[in-house]
Protein backbone atom coordinates (compact mmCIF):
# COMPACT_ATOMS: atom_id res chain seq x y z
CA UNK A 1 0.00 0.00 0.00
CA UNK A 2 2.83 2.39 0.95
CA UNK A 3 4.59 1.62 -2.35
CA UNK A 4 1.44 2.49 -4.33
CA UNK A 5 1.06 5.80 -2.47
CA UNK A 6 4.70 6.70 -3.11
CA UNK A 7 4.36 5.88 -6.80
CA UNK A 8 1.15 7.92 -7.00
CA UNK A 9 2.83 10.96 -5.38
CA UNK A 10 5.79 10.68 -7.76
CA UNK A 11 3.51 10.46 -10.83
CA UNK A 12 1.44 13.38 -9.57
CA UNK A 13 4.57 15.45 -8.96
CA UNK A 14 5.85 14.77 -12.46
CA UNK A 15 2.47 15.56 -14.04
CA UNK A 16 2.41 18.90 -12.21
CA UNK A 17 5.94 19.69 -13.28
CA UNK A 18 7.34 19.27 -9.77
CA UNK A 19 10.89 17.90 -9.77
CA UNK A 20 11.59 14.77 -7.70
CA UNK A 21 13.54 15.08 -4.44
CA UNK A 22 16.66 13.71 -6.16
CA UNK A 23 16.58 16.56 -8.68
CA UNK A 24 16.31 19.18 -5.95
CA UNK A 25 19.18 17.52 -4.06
CA UNK A 26 21.30 17.46 -7.21
CA UNK A 27 20.66 21.14 -7.92
CA UNK A 28 21.41 22.01 -4.30
CA UNK A 29 24.69 20.11 -4.51
CA UNK A 30 25.61 21.83 -7.78
CA UNK A 31 24.91 25.26 -6.25
CA UNK A 32 27.10 24.38 -3.28
CA UNK A 33 29.92 23.32 -5.63
CA UNK A 34 29.55 26.57 -7.60
CA UNK A 35 29.65 28.58 -4.36
CA UNK A 36 32.82 26.78 -3.21
CA UNK A 37 34.43 27.30 -6.60
CA UNK A 38 33.66 31.02 -6.47
CA UNK A 39 35.20 31.24 -2.99
CA UNK A 40 38.34 29.35 -4.02
CA UNK A 41 38.91 31.11 -7.35
CA UNK A 42 42.38 32.52 -7.88
CA UNK A 43 42.97 36.00 -9.18
CA UNK A 44 44.55 35.83 -12.62
CA UNK A 45 47.36 38.38 -12.77
CA UNK A 46 49.64 36.71 -15.33
CA UNK A 47 47.67 34.10 -17.26
CA UNK A 48 50.58 32.82 -19.33
CA UNK A 49 52.69 32.19 -16.23
CA UNK A 50 49.83 30.83 -14.11
CA UNK A 51 48.70 28.39 -16.81
CA UNK A 52 52.22 27.42 -17.89
CA UNK A 53 53.27 23.83 -17.39
CA UNK A 54 51.52 20.48 -17.10
CA UNK A 55 47.92 19.82 -15.98
CA UNK A 56 46.36 16.40 -15.39
CA UNK A 57 43.02 15.96 -17.21
CA UNK A 58 40.41 14.94 -14.60
CA UNK A 59 36.94 15.60 -16.09
CA UNK A 60 35.54 15.93 -19.60
CA UNK A 61 31.98 17.24 -19.85
CA UNK A 62 31.55 16.59 -16.10
CA UNK A 63 32.57 12.94 -16.48
CA UNK A 64 35.63 11.36 -14.88
CA UNK A 65 38.14 10.45 -17.56
CA UNK A 66 38.74 6.73 -17.73
CA UNK A 67 41.05 4.92 -20.12
CA UNK A 68 41.58 1.15 -20.49
CA UNK A 69 45.31 1.46 -19.82
CA UNK A 70 44.83 4.06 -17.04
CA UNK A 71 47.09 6.35 -19.01
CA UNK A 72 48.22 9.66 -17.57
CA UNK A 73 46.30 12.28 -19.55
CA UNK A 74 47.61 15.81 -19.49
CA UNK A 75 47.65 19.21 -21.13
CA UNK A 76 50.88 21.20 -21.31
CA UNK A 77 51.02 24.96 -21.88
CA UNK A 78 54.32 26.39 -23.10
CA UNK A 79 55.39 30.00 -22.62
CA UNK A 80 55.41 30.35 -26.42
CA UNK A 81 51.64 29.90 -26.78
CA UNK A 82 51.94 26.27 -27.77
CA UNK A 83 49.83 23.51 -26.26
CA UNK A 84 50.53 19.78 -26.13
CA UNK A 85 48.06 17.15 -24.95
CA UNK A 86 48.44 13.46 -24.20
CA UNK A 87 44.94 12.05 -24.63
CA UNK A 88 45.72 8.42 -23.80
CA UNK A 89 47.42 6.88 -26.79
CA UNK A 90 47.63 9.76 -29.25
CA UNK A 91 48.97 13.26 -28.75
CA UNK A 92 47.48 16.58 -29.81
CA UNK A 93 49.48 19.69 -30.68
CA UNK A 94 48.34 23.23 -31.34
CA UNK A 95 48.49 26.84 -30.26
CA UNK A 96 46.43 28.99 -27.91
CA UNK A 97 45.58 32.67 -27.53
CA UNK A 98 44.89 34.49 -24.27
CA UNK A 99 42.99 37.66 -23.54
CA UNK A 100 42.02 38.16 -19.92
CA UNK A 101 40.06 35.06 -18.95
CA UNK A 102 39.36 34.18 -22.58
CA UNK A 103 41.32 31.36 -24.16
CA UNK A 104 41.05 29.67 -27.54
CA UNK A 105 42.88 26.66 -28.93
CA UNK A 106 43.82 26.79 -32.60
CA UNK A 107 45.54 24.65 -35.23
CA UNK A 108 44.90 21.48 -33.22
CA UNK A 109 46.14 18.31 -34.87
CA UNK A 110 46.44 14.79 -33.49
CA UNK A 111 48.39 11.67 -34.26
CA UNK A 112 46.35 8.77 -35.60
CA UNK A 113 47.64 5.72 -33.81
CA UNK A 114 45.25 2.80 -33.62
CA UNK A 115 44.52 2.00 -29.99
CA UNK A 116 41.68 1.49 -27.53
CA UNK A 117 40.02 4.41 -25.79
CA UNK A 118 39.78 6.62 -28.89
CA UNK A 119 36.28 7.74 -27.90
CA UNK A 120 37.74 9.50 -24.87
CA UNK A 121 40.41 11.09 -27.04
CA UNK A 122 37.84 12.41 -29.48
CA UNK A 123 35.78 13.82 -26.62
CA UNK A 124 38.82 15.63 -25.20
CA UNK A 125 39.76 17.10 -28.57
CA UNK A 126 36.17 18.17 -29.29
CA UNK A 127 36.04 19.87 -25.89
CA UNK A 128 39.33 21.69 -26.55
CA UNK A 129 37.98 23.05 -29.83
CA UNK A 130 34.89 24.39 -28.04
CA UNK A 131 36.80 26.10 -25.16
CA UNK A 132 36.38 29.87 -24.92
CA UNK A 133 37.33 30.76 -21.35
CA UNK A 134 38.93 29.56 -18.12
CA UNK A 135 39.23 30.07 -14.39
CA UNK A 136 41.42 28.49 -11.71
CA UNK A 137 40.46 27.34 -8.21
CA UNK A 138 42.70 26.18 -5.38
CA UNK A 139 41.82 23.66 -2.65
CA UNK A 140 44.43 22.43 -0.14
CA UNK A 141 47.40 23.41 -2.33
CA UNK A 142 45.88 21.70 -5.38
CA UNK A 143 44.97 23.90 -8.35
CA UNK A 144 42.08 23.09 -10.69
CA UNK A 145 41.90 24.59 -14.17
CA UNK A 146 38.34 24.88 -15.49
CA UNK A 147 38.20 25.31 -19.28
CA UNK A 148 34.78 26.65 -20.12
CA UNK A 149 32.58 26.78 -23.20
CA UNK A 150 30.40 29.46 -24.74
CA UNK A 151 27.92 29.61 -21.86
CA UNK A 152 30.47 29.33 -19.05
CA UNK A 153 30.04 25.64 -18.25
CA UNK A 154 33.25 23.68 -17.63
CA UNK A 155 34.05 21.42 -20.58
CA UNK A 156 37.32 20.22 -19.08
CA UNK A 157 38.60 20.22 -15.52
CA UNK A 158 42.32 19.73 -15.02
CA UNK A 159 44.31 19.26 -11.83
CA UNK A 160 47.79 20.33 -10.80
CA UNK A 161 49.47 20.12 -7.44
CA UNK A 162 50.69 23.50 -6.30
CA UNK A 163 54.25 23.19 -4.99
CA UNK A 164 54.66 26.90 -4.17
CA UNK A 165 54.81 26.01 -0.46
CA UNK A 166 57.98 23.98 -1.13
CA UNK A 167 59.84 26.73 -2.98
CA UNK A 168 62.30 29.10 -1.36
CA UNK A 169 64.99 29.18 1.33
CA UNK A 170 64.84 26.82 4.32
CA UNK A 171 66.69 25.96 7.50
CA UNK A 172 66.89 22.27 8.41
CA UNK A 173 65.10 21.95 11.76
CA UNK A 174 65.41 18.19 12.27
CA UNK A 175 66.68 15.03 10.57
CA UNK A 176 64.83 11.76 11.21
CA UNK A 177 63.21 13.26 14.29
CA UNK A 178 66.48 14.54 15.79
CA UNK A 179 66.88 18.29 16.23
CA UNK A 180 69.80 19.87 14.42
CA UNK A 181 71.49 21.83 17.20
CA UNK A 182 74.56 23.92 16.62
CA UNK A 183 74.54 23.15 12.91
CA UNK A 184 73.44 25.79 10.41
CA UNK A 185 72.17 23.73 7.45
CA UNK A 186 70.25 25.71 4.85
CA UNK A 187 68.42 24.65 1.67
CA UNK A 188 67.15 26.52 -1.34
CA UNK A 189 64.51 24.71 -3.41
CA UNK A 190 63.82 26.30 -6.80
CA UNK A 191 60.58 24.92 -8.23
CA UNK A 192 60.93 26.88 -11.48
CA UNK A 193 64.37 25.54 -12.29
CA UNK A 194 63.70 22.27 -10.39
CA UNK A 195 66.97 22.41 -8.43
CA UNK A 196 67.99 22.03 -4.79
CA UNK A 197 71.04 23.52 -3.11
CA UNK A 198 72.10 22.88 0.48
CA UNK A 199 74.89 24.40 2.52
CA UNK A 200 76.15 23.86 6.04
CA UNK A 201 78.62 26.73 5.89
CA UNK A 202 81.29 24.30 4.75
CA UNK A 203 79.84 21.46 2.70
CA UNK A 204 77.65 22.11 -0.34
CA UNK A 205 75.02 19.78 -1.80
CA UNK A 206 73.51 20.29 -5.27
CA UNK A 207 70.83 18.29 -7.06
CA UNK A 208 67.70 18.24 -9.18
CA UNK A 209 64.03 18.08 -8.21
CA UNK A 210 61.64 15.62 -9.85
CA UNK A 211 57.85 15.83 -9.53
CA UNK A 212 55.56 12.82 -10.06
CA UNK A 213 52.13 14.24 -10.95
CA UNK A 214 50.48 10.83 -10.77
CA UNK A 215 50.87 10.77 -6.97
CA UNK A 216 49.86 13.32 -4.35
CA UNK A 217 52.77 15.66 -3.63
CA UNK A 218 55.41 13.18 -4.75
CA UNK A 219 58.84 14.80 -5.01
CA UNK A 220 62.34 13.39 -5.29
CA UNK A 221 65.79 14.93 -5.03
CA UNK A 222 68.19 13.25 -7.41
CA UNK A 223 71.61 13.57 -8.98
CA UNK A 224 72.82 14.81 -5.59
CA UNK A 225 76.45 15.82 -5.42
CA UNK A 226 78.18 16.87 -2.19
CA UNK A 227 81.58 18.45 -1.64
CA UNK A 228 81.89 16.50 1.65
CA UNK A 229 84.73 18.66 2.89
CA UNK A 230 86.27 17.71 6.19
CA UNK A 231 84.13 19.97 8.36
CA UNK A 232 82.99 19.03 11.87
CA UNK A 233 80.45 17.64 12.52
CA UNK A 234 80.32 15.96 9.10
CA UNK A 235 77.80 13.36 10.28
CA UNK A 236 74.94 15.91 10.14
CA UNK A 237 75.80 16.79 6.55
CA UNK A 238 75.74 13.10 5.63
CA UNK A 239 72.40 12.63 7.41
CA UNK A 240 70.88 15.50 5.42
CA UNK A 241 72.26 14.08 2.17
CA UNK A 242 70.82 10.62 2.90
CA UNK A 243 67.47 12.13 3.98
CA UNK A 244 67.23 14.04 0.68
CA UNK A 245 67.99 10.84 -1.23
CA UNK A 246 65.23 9.02 0.70
CA UNK A 247 62.61 11.74 0.15
CA UNK A 248 59.58 10.63 -1.85
CA UNK A 249 56.86 13.06 -0.70
CA UNK A 250 56.45 16.51 0.80
CA UNK A 251 53.80 17.90 3.13
CA UNK A 252 53.02 21.43 4.29
CA UNK A 253 52.96 21.38 8.08
CA UNK A 254 52.08 25.07 8.49
CA UNK A 255 52.97 28.41 6.88
CA UNK A 256 56.51 28.24 8.27
CA UNK A 257 57.36 24.54 8.19
CA UNK A 258 57.39 21.77 5.59
CA UNK A 259 58.06 18.06 6.03
CA UNK A 260 59.88 15.74 3.64
CA UNK A 261 58.83 12.08 3.86
CA UNK A 262 60.21 8.75 2.67
CA UNK A 263 58.30 6.06 0.74
CA UNK A 264 56.71 4.81 3.99
CA UNK A 265 55.54 8.33 4.93
CA UNK A 266 58.11 8.65 7.70
CA UNK A 267 59.28 12.24 8.22
CA UNK A 268 62.98 12.42 7.32
CA UNK A 269 63.43 16.20 7.26
CA UNK A 270 61.59 19.12 8.82
CA UNK A 271 62.33 22.44 7.15
CA UNK A 272 61.71 25.88 8.66
CA UNK A 273 61.22 28.80 6.30
CA UNK A 274 63.75 31.63 6.47
CA UNK A 275 64.24 34.89 4.60
CA UNK A 276 66.74 35.38 1.80
CA UNK A 277 68.75 37.62 4.14
CA UNK A 278 69.24 34.69 6.50
CA UNK A 279 70.93 32.71 3.72
CA UNK A 280 74.03 34.86 4.05
Description:
The protein has 2 domains: 47-161, Lipocalin (Beta Barrel), CATH 2.40.128.270; 164-279, Beta Barrel (Lipocalin). Helices cover 23% and strands 40% of the residues. By secondary structure, the chain is an alpha+beta fold. Strands 1, 2, 3, 4, 5, 6, 7, 8 and 9 form a 9-stranded antiparallel sheet that branches. Strands 10, 11, 12, 13, 14, 15, 16, 17 and 18 form a 9-stranded antiparallel sheet that branches. The protein contains 5 helices and 18 strands. It is elongated.
Q: Any chance you could write out the topology, listing elements then pairs?
A:
Layout: H1 2-15, H2 21-40, H3 47-51, E1 53-60, E2 63-64, E3 74-77, E4 82-86, E5 91-99, E6 102-110, H4 118-130, E7 133-139, E8 142-148, E9 154-161, E10 168-175, E11 178-179, E12 186-190, E13 195-199, E14 204-212, E15 218-226, H5 234-246, E16 249-252, E17 257-261, E18 267-273
Antiparallel strand pairs: 1-2, 1-3, 1-9, 3-4, 4-5, 5-6, 7-8, 8-9, 10-11, 10-12, 10-18, 12-13, 13-14, 14-15, 16-17, 17-18
Amino acid sequence: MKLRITAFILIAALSLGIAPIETFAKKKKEKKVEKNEATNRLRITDARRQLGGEWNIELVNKKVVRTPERAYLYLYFSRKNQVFACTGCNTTNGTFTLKGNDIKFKELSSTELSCSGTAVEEEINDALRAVEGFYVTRVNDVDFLHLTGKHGAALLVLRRQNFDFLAGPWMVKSVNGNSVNGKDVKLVIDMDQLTVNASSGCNIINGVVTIDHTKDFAVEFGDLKASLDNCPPADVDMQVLIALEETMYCRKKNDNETELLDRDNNVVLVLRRISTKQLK
